[in-house]
Amino acid sequence: xxxVPFNDLRRAVDAHRAEHDAAIxxxxxxxxxxLGEEGRAFEREFAQAVCGGGHAAGVASGTxxxxxxxxxxxxxxxxxxxxxxNTCVPTVAGIERTGATPVxxxxxxxxxxxxxxxxxRAIGPRTRAVVPVHLYGQCxxxxxxxxxxxxxxxxxxxxxxxxxxLRGRPAGSLGxxxxxxxYPTKNLGALGDGGAVASRDEALIERVRRLRMYGQTERYxxxxxxxxxxxxxLQAAVLRVRxxxxxxxxxxxxxxxxxxxxxxxDGPVRPPARLPEREHVFHLYVVRxxxxxxxxxxxxxxxxxxxxxxxxxxxRHPPYAAxxxxxVSLAVSERLAGEILSLPLFPELTDAExxxxxxxxxx
Length: 363
Known about the structure:
Layout: H1 9-15, H2 17-30, H3 37-51, E1 55-59, H4 62-72, E2 80-84, H5 89-96, E3 101-105, H6 116-122, E4 127-131, H7 142-149, E5 155-157, E6 165-166, E7 169-170, E8 177-181, E9 195-199, H8 202-211, E10 216-218, E11 221-222, H9 233-242, H10 246-264, E12 278-279, E13 285-288, H11 292-301, H12 331-337, E14 340-343, H13 351-362
Parallel strand pairs: 2-3, 2-4, 5-8
Antiparallel strand pairs: 1-9, 6-7, 6-12, 8-9, 10-11, 13-14
Helix pairs in contact: 2-9, 3-9, 4-5, 4-8, 6-7, 10-13
């Protein structure tokens, strides 16, 4: 019997192959492959469908989206930007590429999203922005973060949260700007790298559009230093195919999560926390187990693939070890890293495969 895959990206293509093929053929036939109508149309459609309005600028990756959102807000060398310790390295890499210094805070112990009390301790005189991560598909409490951050700009890291919401407001509309990733495994994934910056502030998005094109304001006139970071037309066309299916795909994720919840009821393995007034879109289904490694071995023996997101917090990677020396406790992030395990969850997972995971959890 074949293993239950953690993910299988081929199935997402097969589910809408005719639409994919037609979109790709349309771009190839157009003869226009960068910064064309596909990208402009996707930016409009994405801002409306995912962020509830406002504006968006397609860029080359989620990491670039963080960098360019911060740069558009005026963050640069000499500044500090606070984010959480239990994110993936690209969050911090995007901050560093502005020239700013990342500062780590801890997370709340249930869902692992940014802890406002820890954030307050991490803010210093050089802090110029805050980057909360909507972790695993669930929004951080940006309202509570805003109460602590005051006038500091907030850039949401929405890489894992396309379609999530906080108190009825969609991820991507909660801060001053938002960074999305369209890496193939995301809830809204491309067939390669891609990302977007979203904001209600049209002037900020216009600056992102300049920065993504070397700071260019008109052909061969550059008003500021920028970078090369563009969402190409092929990826934009694929994303336009997938965008109308996002809500149904997220609903399927939620249904699979409900089946896993039932299997874990009253057992020692804790299902993902659902914080109040949030719509969780389950980019990942992350459990906590008192003996995580034993659970992972047991599932492997049952041919169920799992991963750990993430096995070490940022400051446990050698290049970032010094980020732990700021006097802010990161104890919750440390503890979570030893307990968490991600189960298979993607929209094309079959009912039979879900049942196999459920059976293995109960074994």
